[in-house]
Structures are given as C-alpha cells and as structure tokens.
Fold each of these.
Amino acid sequence: MASRSRIADGAGKYLSLIALSVLLLLMLFPLYMVTINSFKTEDGFLATGPFRLSTNLTLDTLKTTWKSTEYTTKLLNSLAISLTTALLAVGLSLFSAFALGIGKVKGKVLFLVFFLIAVMLPSESLVYPMYYFFKLVKLYDTRTSVVLFTAAFHASFGTYLLASAFSAFPRELIESAVIDGCNKLNLLFRIVVPISMPTLSVLFVFFFIWTWNDLFTPLIFLISNAKQTVPLAMALARAEHNVTITLQSSAALLGILPCMIFFILFQRTLTKGITAGSIK
Amino acid sequence: MAQTSISPDQKYARSGASRTVAVARKSASPYRGYEVFLLPGVLWFLALIVAPFLVNIAVSFTKWQGVGMPIWTGLANYQKAFSDSTFWTSFRNNLSLIVAMTIVPTLVGLFLAAFLFDYISKKFGAGVTSFFRAGFYVPQVIPIVVAAIAWRWILQPDWGAVNSLLRAVGLGALAHNWLGDPATAMPSIMVMMVWFQIGYPLVIFMAALQRVDPELHEAAALDGASWLQTFAYVTVHLIRPEIYVVILTTMIHALKVFPPVWLMTRGGPGTATYVASYFSFRNFFEISNVGYGATIATILTVIIVVITIVYIRVQTQQQREEGLYG
C-alpha cells in the first residue's frame, strides 16, 4: 500500500512537471518563432516554413534589418528617452514623496488622491491638448516632449508608491537627525535616499521598462524617422516589410533583446518591487 | 555625538532673538515646512496633467478639426456618442477585454500560483519554481509590438500555427481567418491578451503566498479540509489585498488598452475590434474629428474614475465588515 502511493506520488510529481513545461512552451512559443526566423536566410525560410528550425543559419538577415531600420539610432533614442524619463520621474517622485510621506503637509490625502487619479487617466484624455501645445512651442517631434509628458505620469505613480514607503520610514532617524541640526536637504540626501535605495532602484527599473515599451506617446509626438524609439520603429516597419517574415522576425528580435537583457539583469529587483507596491 | 553645552533656547537668547522666536523655535516640529519639496512635482502635475485634462474636457463640447477655431456645440457630441453604434461596439469590446485581462488571468494566476507555490516548490525546489515563474512572466516583459507580430503569424489564415495545427490533426474545417473575420477577430485578441496578462497576477500572488502562515494550512488539513477547500476558504481569503489590487489594476488597464488593437487589426475588420482608446485616437488623428475624440476620451475617463471609486468603496466596506467578524 505504501509503495503504491509512493509510486503514484512520484508519477504525479513528474506528470505535473511535464504539464507545466508544456504550458510554458506554449507561452513562449511566440518568442521561439521570432528567434528562429531571425537567423534564417530567405531560402532557408522558404524551405522550412515559419515554425521549424533551419540548419542554414545566418546573421545576414539581422544585419540587413539593423541597417534598414537604422537600429542604432532608434536604440540610442529609446535609451536616451527611457533613461532621462526614469531619472526625472524618480527625482520628482522623491521630492513629492519626501514632502507627503515624511513631512506633515496640509491636505496630504487630497494630494495623494490626485496623483493616483493621474495614474488612472487614459492618455487619450490628455494627448490632444499636449499635441497642440507642443506644436505651438515647437517641441513637437522632439524626444524632450516624450520625456516631459511620460515623466508626469510615472512621477504620479512614483509619488504615491514612495509616499506609502516613506510613511513607514523610522521616525527616530528623522528626529535624531533634525536634533543634530540636519537641514531638510541633508536629511533627504544623506539619510532618506541611502536607506530607500532599494525602493528607488525598483522604481527606476519600472519607469525605464515602461517608458521603453511605451508605444502611444512616441506614436503621437514623434514623427520623423530619426527620432523614433525601437518599439515604434518596429510597429511602423511592419507595414513596409510586410512580405519577408525573416526581416520582420529580425526586427522583432532586435526589439526584444534590450528588454530581455534588462529582464534578466533585474528579475530579482522587479519581483521585490511588485510586491512592495501591492502589500502596502 | 557629544551633548552641546548650550541649549537651543540659550543660543537664541544670546543671539538677541526675541523671546517669541525662541519659544516658537522650541516647539517647531521636524515635520513642518516640507511644502517647498512638493513644488516641482505639483507644478509638473498641473502643467502636464491637469491643464491638458481640463482643456480636453472643454474641447469635448466643441466641433473642431484641429485647425482654426473650435465651434461650441454643447452636449451634441455626447448625444452623438450614445446613439453611435461604433461607440457601443467599443464599449462592448472593452468589457470583453476585462474578461480577458482581469477575470481569466486572475483565476488562472491564482491556481497557477498556488500550484507552483504549494506543490512544485515542495517537490522540485525554489530554483525550478523561479524558472517557471520567470517564464510565465516573459510575455509581460517583451514589447507588445513583438508579441503582436508573433501572434499575427500564429493566427495567419494560410500558414499560421493555429490553422496548420488544425489541418494537421484533421480539423481543417475549423480553420478560420481569425483576425479577418468579424466574428473571431475580437476573441482572437482576447486570447492573446490572456497570454499576455497571466504573468502579472502570477508573480504578485506567489509573493503574497509567501506571507501566508503554513500552520493555517496544516490546521485546515487536520480539520479534514481538502486541498481545494483550504485553497478557497483559507488561502484566497488571506491574500485578499493582493487580489483586490490585481483586479483593479488589470480592469483599468483593460479599459485603457490601445497597442494590441492598433497593432493587430487597426480596429478592423470594419469596426469589429474597436476599443474606446482606439476610437478616440482615430477621431483625433485620422479623421480629425477632434471634438468627438475628446468626448469619447472624457466618457472613458469618467467610467474609469467611477469604477475605481465604487470598487474602493466596496473593498473598504468588505474589509470593515470582516474586521468586525475576524
């Protein structure tokens, strides 16, 4: 009796692992397709179709796509926009959360509610006036416009999250610092920031990834090829390179690579951050 | 740090400051005077969020092509919206996406999280569990553009994976033009969004499960509860806060969603896959019906805000009731 249940237990164990793996393979199938087709030549693709592997591997497809989409420019654009926006948003969140989470400001709850509402607003309810305004001040089709606009959104979320975190900041540290004659700027940068570094870095990673993957804002504010971000370039290139799957694939793969690199580097930080926001 | 020999009061007295200043200084809290730090964030917020929002609402009461002057039309746009079949199609599609992005992923995420956490991690260890969790989260990390490209191939009528598979197992009759047929276009996008969204609840719930006391599970097992009963009555109850957050955030996302529709079908075929945000976008930038676009955006915003307020009210109510009864 005991050995039967142990075998059943062992079988059940491996069965569930197999089931889970199948599910995972199904989940990652789209990624698999994009990857294998990026390394095929046109002939190789015609021979094997889009779903099977090919022995005829080449880097030429990737190289062609890199050049034809001016990938380097797009990569630098995305990098510049995402880095600046993330830094700016973290900075704004830090200052606002410092006031709301650590200081005692009148109407604190009202401020937080407003910031939270901003996070919920659809971009469409803001975009046209911004579009009109940016055109007016000749900031249309600049990366600056994207940075300014996106930072506002992320800073709203960041303020809310950080204010929550700061309200749990140990008061004794603050009070002893003030007694020691610490002014507010020193308090912020010498005490609060170093201790809150994990939360701040998580926030930075979030903002970076969200900005990088943002399609809508660059779609509206960036018109010329030279200013486009990577996801935008890929979305628009699709219409042109409609025929060759291999070229589309390689464009897609070039779009994934930066994200996968970030994901792998920051996987731990990400999961810590997701829970930090929700548990509060 | 060594105690200063002069108290703050004496310092001020010596510096010649008035007594009132000394008194005020003594009772000054370290928590006052932070307003200045709010200034950058609030100014930014006012300029880039509040101002355009209010202007947009104003524009929603006008007829405007984006050039020249807007013409005031009062509630005409709103009346048009409520009798516009495209508007109702968009609204219906957003509701479908709530099913695809909130209901299904939350349920699947719950079970998968419990399965990974309770069963897989005990039988195969933390490494394997993390591997699966990361794998299921990947769709959330890759740009939606890439996902859309890949899914378009999968759904391609002639050589796409779905149809090829159906034909290979003899079910060729079921093969469809998934994105080109109005009847299957929206469901296809829904399937893709389920795929996209599963990782998010999974990760959050798995983290939440880590704070559940395993002794509670043992107690339930001792009382004779099956795994399903323990799961439904103990586990789910304990990670309620996270479930609430997931439901709210995914619901709002489903109402705001734009890229998948724009990338997969451009709202087509016809208007079959229109969603509110896409409809608004089209009015703004493709047919230059700016006033109407603003109207749709405003209606969408109102819906989102109302849902959120109601949701939070219900949630706090439930939590208050639970507080009374343990």
Note: The first strand of chain B starts at residue 62 and ends at 63.
Amino acid sequence: MLSEWTKLRTLPSTVWLLVGIVVSTVAVGALAAASLNVSHCPTPATCFEDTTKMSLIGVRLAQLGVVVFAVLAVSNEYGTRMIQTTLLASPRRLGVFAARLIVITSLVLVAGAAGVLGAVAAATEILPRNGFAPISLADGLTLRAAAGSVLYLALIGLFSAGLAAVVRDTAGSITFVAAVLFVAPMLLMFVSDPVWQQRLRRFSPMDAGLAIQTTRDLTTLPISAWAGLGVLACYATAAVLAGALLFRFRDA
Amino acid sequence: MRNLLRAEWTKLWSVRRWALALGSAAVLSVLLGLLAASGSGTDANRHGLYTAGPEGTPVEDAFQFVHQPMTGNGSVIARVTGQAGSHEWARAGVMIKEKAAFGARYASLAITPEHGLRLQANFTRDLAVGDGTAPTWLKLTRMGTEFVGSVSSDGANWRELGRIEVAGLPQSVEAGIFVNSPPKIRIERQAGSTSVGGVPTKGTATFDSVRLEAGHAGGEWLSDTVMRPSAEKLDPPIGSSSSSGGVFTVIGSGDIGPNEPDDDMVQIGLFGILAGVMAIIAVAVLFVTAEFKRGMMIRTTFVASPRRGRVLIAKSIVIAAVAFAAGVVAAVASFLVTQPILRDHGFAPPAFPVMSLWDVGVIRAIAATGLFVALVAVFSLGVGALLRHSAAAITSVIALLIGPAIVASMLPVEAARWLMRLTPAGGFATQRVKPPNDGLVEAWSMIPGWAGLVVVSVYAATALGAGLWSLRRRDV
C-alpha cells in the first residue's frame, strides 16, 4: 500500500486534480447560492428553494475531477507499460488492486470533505445576503446531505477506477464514465413519460446518488436518500468487481 | 497545404479505434434519440387549446373587431387618437378579415405602444414597418391578394409603409378597426421546476374618422369579440366598444399570432447528438494528444512540416470536416427515426404540425447542429494542443460543455440564460426550430440557435489560437 501511496503522491496531476475538486465544489456552490434570491419566491416566507442542495451543486462538477483522478490512477500505468514493473514487484494482483483503490478512495474522501465543508461555509456567508436563512451542519438533514455528498464522490471514484481497470484506456474510460453519468440527467429534461422519468431518476447513477442532497419535500423524492446512494454503490461494486476480475485474470 | 491535409486525414482514418469511435458516434446518437423519443409524450391535443390557423401552425386569435362588410378592392381608413399602454405588444388599428371568426385569414396594420407600426397577416407574418404612436392615420388597402399599409399625419397625404400577400380571401370580407392586448406572462424557476402564469390585460384605444372606401360599403358598424370557442365557456369576454359622435372607444383583450406549445419535436429528436458529441470530443483530443505520447510522433510530424501552425490548422480542418459530416448524418438519421415515434406519442397536428426533412426550419437546425459538432471538435483539438494531455483536455471540454447544461437546469431564469450565453453548453440551442423560450427545463432553449453557435465559435477560436501559440513557442 505504501508503494501505491508513493506512486500517487509523486504524480503531479494528483495535487492539481485534488485541488481542483475542492475549488470547483466551493466555487460552483458559491455561485449557485449567490444566484438565489428571495425575490424569486412567491412570498418571502414560502420559498421552495432547497438551499442546501443548491449550495452543494458544485459536487456535480467536482465529480469530473474525481473521475479523472481515479481513472488516471488506474490506467496511467498501462500507457507507460509501468504496469509490468508493478506486477513484477507485487505479483499478488488483487492485493495491488485493493491497495490502489484504498489510496484513491482515501484521497477522494479528504478532498471531497474539504470541498463540501468549504461550500457549506461559503453558503452560510452568502445566503443571508440574499434573504435566505443560513444553512448549518447542526441541522440533521444538512449534515446528511454534506456527508452523503462526500460519500457520493468516493463512490464515483470507485466506479471510475473499476471501469478504468476494465477499459484500460485513459481517454476512453473518462469519456465512457462521463457519458454514463451525464447523459441521464440531460435525457430527463426531455423525457415526459412519467414511467420513464421514474426509472431514470431511480436507476441513473448521478440522479439516484445525489438524492441524498435533498433536504426539502422529501416525500416527493423518487427514491429515498440512502437508497439512492445504495444504487450508486451497486454500480460501483459491479465496476470494481469487473475491474478486479479482469485485472487478476487478463494479461497485463 | 494539400499534402498536409492528406497526411492528417491519413492519420485520422488509419487509427482503427478512432474510426470505430466516429462510426459508433452516429449510431449511438440515433439510439439515444430513440430513447428520448420513446420516453416523450404530450397531451397537448387533448384540451382544445390548440387550433390550426390558415398556414398550418396553431394560432391564437382574440380581439375586439368593429367592422362592416366590404366587397372587392377597397380601403379601410381610421385615425387612432389614443392607445393605452396595457402591454408592449397591444395593437390598435385597421384590419381586413375574411369573417369575424376565430382563425379566419386577415391582414392588419396597427400601432403598438413600444414596437411602432406593424403590418401583420395570417398570424405568422409580422413586419415592422415604421415608428410611430397615436395619434396617427392608418389605411389598409386591398388590391386583389395584395394588401398595402399606409400612414398619414393629416388624412390626405399617404405614405406607403409596406405590402403583404394574403391569398384565398373571398370577394366579400369584413373590414374595420380592432384592438387587442396580449396577456402578461410571468415565468419563475425555482428548485429545478418552472412555473408559467399568464394574466390577461385590457387594451383600450380611441378612433375617429373611421370609414371604408370601396365598391360596396356602408351600413351598420358591427362589434364582435373574436376569441377561441372553447375559451368562451371559461372566461367571460372582456371586449366591448362604444361610439358617440363618430368617435369609437374600443376595448379588446387577447393575442393575435402563433400559439405553439413550448416543446419542440425537432429538438427532442436531435437530443441524441449528445452521445455523438462526446465520442467526437474524445477523438478530436486524441487526434492531437496522441502525437505527444511516448514515441513523440509529433517530432516526426514537425520534421516533415516545420511550419507548426499549418499542421494544427490542417488537423483542425480535417477534424472539423469529419465532425460536420458525422454530425449531419447523425442528425438526419435521428430526425427520420424519431419523428414518427413522436407523432405516435401525441406530437401531432393541430398542436404540433408535421415537420418534414425539407422544412426550412429543420434544414437549418440540422445544418446548425452539424456546425455545432464541428466547432466542438475544433475546440477539443485546440484544448488538446494546449494541454498536451488527453485526460485533462477531455475533462475540460466536457466540464465546459455539459457541466453548465446540467447546473443551469436548476438555476433561476436570468442566471441560467447567462450561463448559456457564456459557455459552449449554449450550443445545444442549435437543435431548436421554435423561438427561444424561458419556460422549459433545458436552459439552452432560452437563447436562439445563432447565439449558441457564436459562443462555441469563440471558445473554438480561442482554444485554437492558444494551441497554435503553444505549439510554436514550446519545445516538443
């Protein structure tokens, strides 16, 4: 595991990507919070805005950084053929794979936590200026949304790492994962059949996973918060299993 | 340059993976379009809200009409002495209409509080013909199928403003003065959902010196409130008119013009292009970054062609042409496959007129989509040349193209619209045939197609410029 950590630590793109994850979460969340204003509400007392969800909207962009980070960590070695050196040094392939996943996930959790905390702090500053009540982690639902967002990023990291081990090509993996994540929300904007909408909201990785960010109108959620993360966990598990099996049994 | 182009083209099609990706891009686009179409439906035709007008598109026709019959060629003349500013598009003027009924053919010349003089015919044609407000003299003359609108300041000397064609009117028509005032629409976006509300407005105008100059004219002035038959049961008619001593005070409410549902069948059909675009981003980035990988083929390339800038230009021409072709093929295929499905799901006349591949709007949308895909390819190429790293380049392009599209669907109207104007995500507006609309979920419907192309062009040009600078200045 130490060798995996060293490899990732010494990769210059690691720092950039982790910083990027933090910055994009905070920046986009702050911009979204700044765009909200009580004047858009029917009456200031009855606003429908889910301020927590809007403040954490940066996660949708930051997840791209997580995807790239996880994919690079896994597939980079194939491009330079360093994978052969790695497997020569540690022939127990599943061990290598597991160690890599642990390092990736830990780093994503740290960066994600930093980003989410930063976004919450920014929103607490900005929202009162536009007339909303500040959000605070003391509130149970907000805490759940924040913690859930960090978990979401970690699961996205696992999902990407697994798929990268399957596809092994950096550009292809990134494009494929991005497509799987982003096509469903765009599709939802056009699909008006309620049955299809329900299906997409429940089973698409991004929409189901981010259900945990909702703190208002919880009864109207198509899938409950933790079940949504569970759906994403299923995707991640399947990807990791497929990746692990192929890593173990395929030629390097 | 021709050799350079041939060299770059060879490089592109000889990598099997890339050719495969481009081919599958078109197929994936059609499949995704099928998915979108199968999941779409509308019940717009079930509530009697949409009635087709003389030119096929659904229309709204509600106003107050004070009229007399007129036979053959002739003119209707009136002086509008005052108009209330109930709505920027409220109209007060003269009209010649087939009959005082909803959806009948007509031509009209009117003043508006904020848009000057307008010559309008058959709901879909609306020309700005001059500035002016009340008081002013207006004259509309019928000459067969041609209608001439004229204005005057004293009632004797007339200045022609414009002409408009209306075919199919019988010899005997109704001519007179009219007033309308469209409802005020308020759109609020909140928590990812949109609410659209309309409040009727009441338009008031005063006329005098109203007369017809025609073969057969004269008789009683009739006053009718023209409105949608199904609406008569819901809303009591607001229109009325009164006259004393030759001065008419007319009160009218409603809109005269196209009344199409917000959804755009062509846009839904072309949605699948998103999948193709993602594949093309990957190929365009790899087209340049693959040369920087170990082995450094870029050195061979630059030895063969020392003018580095030309190499990148050649690459961009090749990838743009390929992307345009792929985009157009995918768009045409998506359109042909999805339209029948959408028609089965409720997107049918009268609310949604049948769109064919040869309609001007459809051709424009397909060409614009092809151009959008080509520009995204050039943008990706430029970013790839600048960053020299495939992962970074692909991610940056996707972040700028798709990130804003998703985030904007949750923001209020103004913020969402600005995001579309300033990021390449606005390029998806090219898929729309109908005019921009603030009331839809997808934010890129708020800007016109050309605005989307402009912003993507700016990003493409900037990225290409930066890439050129980087290639020339830095070592390889």
Note: The radius of gyration of chain A is 19 Å.
Amino acid sequence: MIRPSSLPAFGTIQEKPVKTPLICALALGAAAIAGGSSAQDSAALQTVSEVTARCSALTGGATLDLGELADIDGFTKTVFDGPDSSTAVPGYWCNAPAEVTLAATPLLNQDVSTVADPGFTTRIDYLASLAWRDFSAVNDTADGNPTIQETAEANIGDIVVTVSDPRASGRLVAGPYEGAVTITIRLP
Amino acid sequence: MNRTIPFIVVAAFALTPLAAQAQVTVNLTGTVNEQCALGIPDLVVLNLMDLTGPDGRLTAELLSATPKVQTDIPNAWCNMPSTLKIEAAPLSQAVAPGYNTPAGFSRLLTFDAVLEGWPAEIRHRPLLGSAASTTSANTPHAHDLTLSIASLQTLNADGASEAAGLVVEAGAYSTEIVISVGAQ
C-alpha cells in the first residue's frame, strides 16, 4: 500500500485536519487505520474513475476471390461463384456507440477502361453488407456514396462483410476485375 | 470511536490515446474469361436450286451480284478483340465422274460468300486450295451476322482460276461454308 508521508504514522492520533493532495492508484478495499483506544476503526473511501471511450484495433482485412463473373452468354452472373462473405475482423468491440462508415467500390476491369460497343461494359455493381452482432449496414456501389450509420450502444462481435446482387449494363469485357469494401469506425 | 476520513481517489486509467478513426478493407477480385459465341443460323442448308438454264450455263440470276440465298446468324459476340473467319471450297459434284473434265465444261463453281455484321464485311470467293478470309474487331463486339451467296462463276478444270461461259456438268453440287470467330 502506498502511504503518503503527510499522514501520521500508524498507531498515533492527531486531531487535525488531514490535508492530503493525493492522486494515485490505490487498491480498492477498506483501509483500516489503526485508532487509539477503540477496538476497531473504519474509514470510508469514495472512488471516482473514468473509462475512455475506445474501440479495439481495426487491423487486417481480406481478399475475396469471386471467381468467374460472366455467364455463358457473356452477361454478369446473378450470384457470385466464389465465396461472397468474409469475417473482416473477429471479435471487434467498441465500448461506446460508434459511427460506422461502409464504402464499396464497383468491380472494374483492370485491363480495359472504356469500350466503344454500347453492348459491353467494364463495370459490375453490387451490394456490400456489413453485420456486427446486432448492427447491420448496406452499401450499393451504384449509389456512389458511402453508408454512414451509428450503433445504438457499445458492441462486440465479429464484423462480417458480404457481397451480393451483381449487376452490369451489358456483356462484360474480358479481363481481371477488382473492387473493395472499406469499413471505417470512429467514435463521435 | 468511529471516525470517517473521506478519501476521494481519482483513478485515471492510463491508456494509449485513441486514434481518430480506424479502417479495414476487404479486397474483391474476379475474372471474366475471353469468350466468343455464334448463334444458330436461321438456315443451315442454303439451296441454290437448279444452277443452269436451257443453255447448260449458269443462269443470269446466279451470275448477278444480287444474293440468291442468305441466312442470319444471331447473337455473334466476343468480349475481347477478335477475328471473324470464313472458309469454303468451290461448289463441286458430290460424286465426280470417272473422267477428267471435258473441254468446254466445268464441274467447279466459285461464288461470293459475303459475311456482314462485324465492323468490316468479309467477301470470300473460293478457289481450290485458297485460304480463309478474315476480318477483325479491335474491341469487344456483338452483332447478328448475315451470310449471302451471289455472283457464281465457273472455274477451269484445276479450280485455280475463273473461266466464264463454261457448260456446267450434270450432277448434285455442294460445299461447306465454315464461319468461326475467336481471339485475335
């Protein structure tokens, strides 16, 4: 136990105000100060503390390989071939309500940026969904804007990202396609 | 004697300062394989009917540039730069006689096979042993194709050159026209 030097030594009684400019970490519990003639004594302590609002580290990420994107007629498949969900961050927590931003970018052909024939396209839009225990959000890449929502309370659980509902305005130009789903969490 | 000594303890948990925001990204990858396709032609057998008139020579209708027969090939497309190809041999007798082509006669016929629908049309006029004719699209392309047969003409005995005005030997004549599309 840390005992400031301004206090009288144990076993003595002094009738004077105790001036104690004290800020330190103390173990909780009753601190029995030995009194003079009484068989026992007690001291009441009041503790006041503060816990900073925070979230756990948001690190890592993943890559989802969605496989072949076109059907036999050259149009986008209505369901992704490859795995369409990923546990982006397991066991994530915030100890206070937080603002969650979900921003998805369309799948774009990495080799061809424009195509003259209006019957072809180099872009695939889709829905990106986020689930974090009982909190959820959805972002459509066709909207062009991120989805921003606040959680109602502190939360803890796996953050799971799911992509679905691929759409395109024409046959798909051959080549590799890439997109991304970004999750940003901040405390307001 | 009970004494109450109030202690007010302020405990500040020393934590690493929280960053303004944190971010994680899930990357998505996928691929679209190179593909080409041709639909089923409206007609798979192009019947030119009787090739000759009373003089035993090709009729004026078949000699003209007006298509005698044509067929559509729907839904032709390639999702990358492509080459469209047509190959055919001259019309010839299904069963050739057991003698050489007599002078003044022909048993080999050429024609214009015109394929439209790609950025540029193909005009293939076959001789014996001639190569296929091609045209290219430098970007992904989709369009119905139309194949037309016109401008028939008699060939000399070795099938290497045209010889107009020859009498066509009797018999059933046929040839196969192959249309294909693929990567450049």
Note: Confidence is low (pLDDT under 50) at residues 1-18 of chain B.
